Amino acid sequence: MALPLLAIVVPTFNRSENLERLLKAFSASGVVEEAAFVVIDDASRRSVKSELARLSRLYPFAQFEFFDRNQGAPNARNRGAECIDSEWLWFIDDDDVVEPSVFKDVVGFIRQDGVRDIVFLEARNISQESVSVASMQGDNLHDYLARYGQTVNTSCTLMRRKLFDRIGGWDPQLVAGQDTDLFLRASEFSDASIGKGIFIDIVHDANDRITRNAKRQMIGKIQFLRKNWSRLHWVRRMRYVATFVLCVPYIKKLL
Question: What residues pair up with 36 in beta bridges, in sequence order?
Fold first, then answer.
């Protein structure tokens, strides 16, 4: 039996309604036969687990795994990658919005000849105040990430499994900045192809997003800087130091 082209891995925690939105979109995409869908529940509360069990019966194409204790998104993503062998991996956050046509567009994009081992889609950032679009640079990716960081979130990123395995997957020790760390390491071996016009909707008003947790941001920045100091451009090092001195995440929270 041929391996699936793509494994979609979705870690989830206490958000069954958001997860159902993703499952519905994928089921309507027309690519269920070409891609595997894996859900890793990171020890949600009992009532949510009951909802997830219902979803597993309603969407039998999806494989569900359940953690007995909360282990964090990086561990959940690594576990999801272990569940299904595939050529490509796509890690989607359960609170982001992926339209059915986007699943189909992504499969078509990675089937093209000459696609690099890293793919970035475009992000449509949605808040109560505005909607903005973010994209990444594909060429000289390591230099770009080292200086500017990652401007799209996890759900906008795909990676060939062979590269994911080569760099050792997600780092579960980091409490924030895991996606930038992953792709900074990966960019030492590959530049990226850009899926222009393929948008993931990122809703920034959810209170439990890491971007709203100032303490975790600060801890994550310190961890990230210690680990990746030698990889970063000096300008970005200074930017990190400035955020510590000025306590930028806490100021943003107050504003």
Answer: 7
Residues near 146 by Cβ (< 8 Å), separated by ≥ 6?
A: 184, 231, 232, 233, 236
pLDDT digits (tens, 9 = 90+) for 172-205: 999 888 999 999 999 999 999 999 999 999 987 6
Q: 155 and 92 in contact (C-beta within 8 Å)? A: yes
In the chain, what are the helix, strand and coil shares in percent, each to the nearest 5?
Answer: 45, 20, 35
**pTM of this structure:** 0.90
**b/e 119-132 (16+ beta carbons within 10 angstroms → b):** bbbbbebeeeeeee
User: What are 86's two structure tokens?
Assistant: 């595939």
Class of domain 6-205: alpha beta
β-bridge pairing 35-41 and 118-126: unpaired
209, exposed or middle or buried, with CB in 10 Å at 0-12, 13-18, 19+? middle
